[in-house]
Amino acid sequence: MIASSWLKQSIITVLCVLGIPSYLSAPKPISVHLEGQSSITVPANRAIVSLRINAEGPKQDRVADEVRKTADDVLATLRPLAQLQPPQLTTVNATTANSDMQYQPPIVDLSVTTFRSYSWQKPGSLLSRETPQYQASVEIEAEFRDFEPLGILLAQVSKTPAATVQSLKWTLDDVTKKRLFSKCRSEAMVDALDKVRAYIRPLGMDKVRAIKVTESHRRSRPVVWGNVDVLRLQHDELDYNTQMEEPEIATERFGLEPGTLEIVAQIEGEFCAWKTGLEAWFRRGGV
């Protein structure tokens, strides 16, 4: 009898030390299903502009020459902006050398993407025969990190009859885009955990563990298209100013405001919540 009582008391003591009575009296673990969301709004730090140079007429050589000459003029403006080395200065000191090492060209990438040529027969009339017509076009694409030279370029293109702005796309460089997506996903998980803790706190629970997490396909806006129609309107205004003999106005740059981009992350998670109990025994540490 004495041995039996001693054994019972020893078992009770051990259980109390391990915290089993408090664990058994605690609420049972529950499963929580919640969503977490996050969004980051930033201005674009890259602009991709696509220019189209086009000419047509009855003489093939003249059409080709006009396209080639206009393309050469545009590329002559763009190529210096894409050079890795800055313009050479007559006086070079330590400060200048240091700035040269940090120089970043305004244009990140420059390419001639498409060349097309067509020919067709222009319908005649009762008094004239069919005549051949020729058309040629070149598309040039440039990615800018500096928007001031882009504004100057667009103003120059607006005064070139054969050149038009096909598209203007605001976006982010790859490193910044990856960093912001990673930050946004982390904030979405924090948002989900904050919601779970807010729900389980009144239940006397204080531990949370993620069981399953899936990413919802909520669309971000890492790219915004510029309003080319506005640029064409400014083009017409510059042409009018030129005709009215106001060249100082006609040579002004286009005022460009970078597009606003939105990075979004949304997750759906299944979480397990419980009250502190036998973590030391079961090794069930939560997040």
Structure description:
Mean pLDDT is 79; it is low at 238-251 and 278-287. The protein has helices at residues 2-18, 20-25, 60-82, 94-101, 147-158, 174-200, 228-243, 247-250, 279-282, and strands at 30-43, 46-57, 107-122, 131-144, 163-171, 207-215, 224-225, 260-274. It has 287 residues and is an alpha+beta fold. Strands 3-4-2-5-7 form a five-stranded antiparallel beta sheet. It has two domains: 26-45 and 172-287, Protein of unknown function (DUF541), domain 1 (Translation Initiation Factor IF3, 2-Layer Sandwich); 47-82 and 104-166, Alpha-Beta Plaits (2-Layer Sandwich), CATH 3.30.70.2970.
In the CATH scheme, what's the topology name of the largest domain? Translation Initiation Factor IF3
| Spans where pLDDT lies below 50 across 5 or more residues | 238-251, 278-287
Mean pLDDT: 79
CATH class category name of the largest domain: Alpha Beta
Largest β-sheet summary = 5 strands, antiparallel
Name the shape in a single word: elongated
CATH superfamily annotation of the largest domain? Protein of unknown function (DUF541), domain 1
Rg calculated over all Cα atoms:
34 Å
What is the compact description of this entry?
The protein has 9 helices and 8 strands. It is of the alpha+beta class.
Keywords for this entry:
single chain; 287 residues; alpha+beta; Alpha-Beta Plaits; 2 domains; 9 helices; 41% helix; 26kDa_periplasmic_antigen; SIMPL/DUF541; Unplaced genomic scaffold supercont1.24, whole genome shotgun sequence
